[in-house]
Amino acid sequence: MNTQIEYVRPDEIEKRSFEIIGRELEQRGIVLDAVQEPVTKRVIHTTADFDYADTLVYSENAVEKARNLIKNGAHIVTDTNMAKAGINKKRLAGYGGEVHCFMADEDVAAEAKSRGVTRATVSMERAAALHRPVIFAIGNAPTALISLHEMMQEGVFTPAFIIGVPVGFVNVEAAKELIIQSDVPHIVNRGRKGGSNVAAAICNALVYGIHY
Amino acid sequence: MNTQIEYVRPDEIEKRSFEIIGRELEQRGIVLDAVQEPVTKRVIHTTADFDYADTLVYSENAVEKARNLIKNGAHIVTDTNMAKAGINKKRLAGYGGEVHCFMADEDVAAEAKSRGVTRATVSMERAAALHRPVIFAIGNAPTALISLHEMMQEGVFTPAFIIGVPVGFVNVEAAKELIIQSDVPHIVNRGRKGGSNVAAAICNALVYGIHY
Prior knowledge:
Two copies of one chain form a homodimer. By secondary structure, chain A is an alpha/beta fold. Chain A has helices at 10-27, 37-47, 52-55, 62-71, 81-86, 89-93, 106-115, 119-128, 142-153, 172-180, 196-208; strands at residues 56-58, 75-78, 99-100, 134-138, 161-164, 186-189. Chain A has a six-stranded mixed sheet with strand order 1-6-5-4-2-3, sandwiched between helices. The termini of chain A are far apart.
């Protein structure tokens, strides 16, 4: 453990952190795909957990596809205000994108109650009503992934991309497998781990990595 | 891996999750202190990471002290909007508490710039100006912990309690050791791991665990 405070210029800390992550991945004999690398590294940067190097699952050309969507103004829909708070909304707005968290909206809860449906159902309807490509970033609720999968099966609504990283112990692993086996482009963290912070980190890595 | 979706009533999921966590801690031969247990378990619930059972450090009677503060209307100051978003503000308000994130305030940034000081300095001044007991919950910036420690050393400002769980690779471990060695009551996660989600989980466990 390093218990000595060293002076590092604030704008250098992130660079230094990514160097340390790169070195430790090398020591562990892990070689990441070059396109996926900035995304996986940012998740490790956010969690200090190298397990993610083994468990993140990318569908074919997932990073390129997500970046193209963002570049063309796709909106991001999260399942928690925490994930929404963690996403760099200014940078996203530069491409015309916005972040929504319908699940936490008071009026979504009210509408769900009065119609006798789940908040997830109403949230998906709101997402569909945006009438533009949508990236779903689910960091908390496996039920959101399960609802999403049902709507895709029924042909009601299919998002352009799914970031599926809920965390937990009940139905989390199974919900993620549903998305991994689907045709929708995705980044999913296999297993129990994930979180709103991981969802936000993946979104930010995708936004930051766009170069014209 | 459990890839079968099972129907669990939404209000049962958390209870079931905590049962699984309890069982797995037992299988690992880990016996938690009874008072700290709900806090440690909630962090594991938020991260699906059992490492926290070994690395969370509680100062003497930390949980009792933090709960007493909250019960008496202490405010919570976070270093990120993400941590703020994750804290159950309604429940906290029931005890007269509020959550602030001065670090992310636009006018704090402006004031820091015009005075040539750091945002952390201005944030601590704002916290001191609340004129009430303050719990600091730091999930992101080790520099916030270092500034806090400096102010404590200089006698400028001492919070009533510190939740010190920044995550990362540069100065994070050392910053946490400063707090562990201080006299301020604290809950700190030793090592690199932590995060805004962990900070929020600890705050919520403290708030939820208050019984009259």
